[in-house]
Amino acid sequence: MNFWEKITGSDMTKEFKAFESRAKKLPADYQAAWEEVKANLWTHSDFTGRNLMPILDGVLGLLEETAADGQGVEEVLGEDIKGFCSALAGEEGAKSYRDKWREQLNHNITKKLGK
Amino acid sequence: MLKGVLEGSVLEIISRKETYGYEITRQLNALGFTDVVEGTVYTILIRLEKNKLVEITKKPSDIGPPRKFFAINDAGLAELQRFWEKWEFVSSKISELKEKRS
Question: Cα-flanking dihedrals φ and ψ of residue B64, to 5°?
Answer without folding.
Answer: 70, -165
